[in-house]
């Protein structure tokens, strides 16, 4: 007579987790390394805590947010932000997320209005869409309207 499934000997946990560990290790090796910019004196500028700046195309800088802010759009943007952004940018946009601390990243504090001053909506949209430094791109993972609503959400952090 065969034993019930729950009485079968359990495989050691490392053997069960091996495919996951190998997959995550391979992904970690495939990620591009970031270079630290140097100053004219040859010293590192900002060390590893400041990701390299992204060059925003002039056309992107001129883009205007076509989305009219709505409670529904903002709620959906908060949901996406909670899944994809808060781990680095913090729950309230202060730049103090757990992952940012682990990676020793220095991120803008969006709760301070000055951090977004001089940054047009098109620039924020471009960075969210295409990523910047260690930040992955959202383009292809979220709808265009969701990305524009994310711009609205980011701007709302300094209004609380």
Question: Helicity level, as a percent range?
Answer: 40-55%
Rg, Å, rounded: 21 Å
Q: Whole-number average pLDDT?
A: 77
Order of helical and strand elements: HHHHHHH
Task: Tell me what you see in this structure.
The structure is a single chain. The protein is an all-alpha fold and 160 residues long. The protein has a domain of 89 residues: Cytochrome c-like domain (Cytochrome Bc1 Complex, Chain D, domain 2). The protein is 42% helix and 0% strand. The chain has seven helices and no strands. Helix 3 crosses helix 7 and helix 6 crosses helix 7. The N terminus is likely disordered.
Core attributes:
42% helix; globular; disordered N terminus; 0% strand; single chain; 160 residues; mainly alpha; Cytochrome Bc1 Complex, Chain D, domain 2
Give a brief outline of the structure.
This protein is mainly alpha-helical. The chain has helices at 13-30, 58-61, 71-84, 86-89, 98-102, 121-130, 144-156.
Helices and strands, with pairings:
Blueprint: H1 13-30, H2 58-61, H3 71-84, H4 86-89, H5 98-102, H6 121-130, H7 144-156
């Amino acid at each position: 007579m065969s034993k019930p499934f729950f009485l079968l000997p359990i495989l050691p946990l490392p053997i069960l987790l091996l495919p996951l560990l190998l997959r995550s290790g391979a992904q970690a090796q495939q990620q591009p390394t970031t270079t630290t910019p140097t100053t004219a004196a040859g010293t590192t500028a900002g060390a590893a805590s400041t990701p390299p700046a992204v060059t925003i195309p002039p056309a992107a800088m001129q883009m205007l947010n076509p989305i009219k802010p709505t409670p529904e759009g903002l709620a959906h943007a908060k949901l996406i932000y909670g899944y994809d952004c808060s781990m680095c940018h913090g729950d309230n946009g202060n730049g103090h997320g757990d992952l940012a601390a682990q990676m020793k990243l220095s991120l803008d504090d969006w709760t301070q209005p000055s951090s977004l001053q001089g940054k047009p909506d098109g620039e924020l949209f471009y960075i969210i869409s295409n990523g910047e430094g260690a930040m992955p791109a959202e383009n292809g993972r979220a709808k265009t309207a969701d990305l524009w609503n994310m711009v609205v959400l980011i701007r709302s952090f300094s209004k609380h």
